[in-house]
């Protein structure tokens, strides 16, 4: 059966005889992506940008449908790191050429140009299936005046217990992402890994992976969620909170403690004097940052790792052109522009050096980002990640229903049953 071009994507090629590469991008940094679609186009091909839905889950569904149908017009893709294992396992991604792949694999072991946390996200069964573009992480954002009033020494590691109590005793709040979506799983995973555990282990075993969230680490994570949900520091919209909703309280006195991604600094800087931002430059200087809070006092936290990797569709009509374009799109120059234009931090040390030299970001913030990516806690790398994420979200939502004695146990039993095909999501 022949499908009309419009049902999947624009047809390859145009009247000039040049090939057309379709690049599916997430909504962050679209203007910069458009610029690089033009500058990375050549005499042989044009790169056309197609925007994916805003949510990670919807992005995965759209791409998976195209790739499962062996869509030859899906040439380049912006991939959330957790998509890579699933797509690679399904045979939907082209392997990265050997020279670039070896550079990425060496970086995952701490011996290459890429940040190891970013490099690790694109490796599946000892092969590289995408190229890191930008590497995201979460840090603790806060008002310096609030921390000072609460008597917290932010030069030292702080725990979730400390910031919840500090916010509660000073009429402030703690901002997290706890809606029924991927952002909630990010928080849960960071809490579990920060307590020395994991949601699942032996993930390359697929459905036979060992579910390990019913553990001391799982219960420590649940204690944090429960503590915030039951405190006066919880924001009113806790159960539907996301990366955007938690931004507002920062500039409503006395402020907040908030975990969020690297875009926050550039976002607030661009809002100085405007709605939702600091009143003026002096107010902006009250913005502070620190390493992601520790789940357990005395144990180093494991900040979330995110970002975007560039993958090439296994069924592309123009695989060699697509690989060439992917290397251009992920160049040092592109990474630097994404950081300076959009607050999306690089995946390589070389690009980080250029961003630091620009003076657009405080040096200690840049260093914090790099350290957080390289020492963070990635989400489970599994071909069944979407199943794992949905099952855990379902059992841990809403945050106000979380009980350390039952939630980890119930979620482990449910996830095991779903993986074994005994229950449906």
TrEMBL record:
Keywords: Signal, Transport. It comes from the Bacteria. Pfam families: SBP_bac_1. Belongs to the bacterial solute-binding protein 1 family. PANTHER family: ABC TRANSPORTER PERIPLASMIC-BINDING PROTEIN YCJN-RELATED, ARABINOSE-BINDING PROTEIN-RELATED. This is Extracellular solute-binding protein. It comes from Nocardioides piscis. The lineage of its organism: Bacteria, Bacillati, Actinomycetota, Actinomycetes, Propionibacteriales.
């Amino acid at each position: 059966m022949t499908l009309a071009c419009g049902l999947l994507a624009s047809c390859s090629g145009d009247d000039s005889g040049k090939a057309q590469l379709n690049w599916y991008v997430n909504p962050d940094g679209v203007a910069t992506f458009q610029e690089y679609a033009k500058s990375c186009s050549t005499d042989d091909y044009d790169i056309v940008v197609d925007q994916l839905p805003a949510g990670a889950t919807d992005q995965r569904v759209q791409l998976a449908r195209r790739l499962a149908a062996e869509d030859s017009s899906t040439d380049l893709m912006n991939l959330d790191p957790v998509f890579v294992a699933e797509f690679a396992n399904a045979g939907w991604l082209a392997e990265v050429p050997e020279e670039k792949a070896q550079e990425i694999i060496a970086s995952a072991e701490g011996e290459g140009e890429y940040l190891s946390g970013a490099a690790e996200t694109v490796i599946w069964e000892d092969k590289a299936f995408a190229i890191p573009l930008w590497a995201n992480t979460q840090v603790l954002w806060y008002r310096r005046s609030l921390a000072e009033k609460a008597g917290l020494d932010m030069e030292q590691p702080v725990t979730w217990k400390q910031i919840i109590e500090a916010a509660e005793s000073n009429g402030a709040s703690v901002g997290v992402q706890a809606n029924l979506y991927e952002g909630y799983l990010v928080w849960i995973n960071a809490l579990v890994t920060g307590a020395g555990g994991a949601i699942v282990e032996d993930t390359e075993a697929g459905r036979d992976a060992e579910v390990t969230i019913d553990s001391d680490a799982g219960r420590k994570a649940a204690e944090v969620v429960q503590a915030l949900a039951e405190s006066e520091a919880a924001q009113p919209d806790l159960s539907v909170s996301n990366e955007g909703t938690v931004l507002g309280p920062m500039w409503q006195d006395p402020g907040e403690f908030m975990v969020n991604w690297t875009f926050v600094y550039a976002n607030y800087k661009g809002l100085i004097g405007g709605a939702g931002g600091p009143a003026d430059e002096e107010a902006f200087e009250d913005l502070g940052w620190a390493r992601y809070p520790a789940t357990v006092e005395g144990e180093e936290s494991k900040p979330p790792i995110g970002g975007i990797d560039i993958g090439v569709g296994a069924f592309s009509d123009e695989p060699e052109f697509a690989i060439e374009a992917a290397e251009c799109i992920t160049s040092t120059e592109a990474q630097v522009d994404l950081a300076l234009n959009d607050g999306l931090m690089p995946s390589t040390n070389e690009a980080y050096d250029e961003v630091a030299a620009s003076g657009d970001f405080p040096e200690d913030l840049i260093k914090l980002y790099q350290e957080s990516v390289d020492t963070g806690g990635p989400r489970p790398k599994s071909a069944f990640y979407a199943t794992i994420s949905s099952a855990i979200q379902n059992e841990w939502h809403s945050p106000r229903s979380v009980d350390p004695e039952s939630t980890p146990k119930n979620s482990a039993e449910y996830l095991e049953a779903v993986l074994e095909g005994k229950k449906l999501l």
